[in-house]
Write a structure and sequence with these properties.
alpha+beta; 5 strands; globular; 5-stranded mixed beta sheet
């Protein structure tokens, strides 16, 4: 079952987000998920199995520049995670479908995402669910 998360769902969403985005405390992610649940320009969806959250997806509306997009706002998949034991069952595709439906209901004509170059699993997921590569960039940083 996939459903849009409410503020009361911030803890399970934060637990799953912590597995995707290490380096953040559960409290930081709980605060972020609580804020996102109340934000009209964002949505968090939870996948549940036997009453337990086993996956989440976070999407938002972006009105700034989105690589390759020709319209605004653009629905943007900020993150998606499914517990290992629930993978390869269509859970991530269903989460993505809910995100895309939400974005379309918000007036979006396009939906975008990104992944790290080294994340081949994410690249395969994106291509396998109909995304096309918009561009490749190399990011640089210099200490001053």
């Amino acid at each position: 079952m996939i459903r849009k998360a409410a503020s009361r769902d911030a803890r399970p969403a934060a637990r799953l987000a912590g597995k995707l985005w290490g380096g953040h405390t559960e409290e930081e992610l709980w605060q972020e998920m609580t804020e996102l649940a109340a934000d009209r320009k964002a949505a968090v969806f939870l996948a549940e199995e036997n009453g337990k959250a086993v996956g989440f997806a976070q999407c938002q509306l972006r009105s700034d520049y989105v690589e390759g997009a020709k319209s605004k706002p653009v629905g943007y998949l900020e993150g998606i995670y499914v517990e290992p034991e629930c993978r390869r069952k269509g859970v991530a595709s269903e989460l993505l479908r809910h995100c895309q439906q939400w974005a379309k209901a918000q007036g979006c004509a396009e939906f975008a995402s990104d992944c790290e170059w080294s994340n081949s699993v994410s690249r395969q997921f994106h291509v396998g669910t109909g995304f096309r590569e918009a561009n490749r960039i190399i990011c640089f940083l210099k200490k001053l």
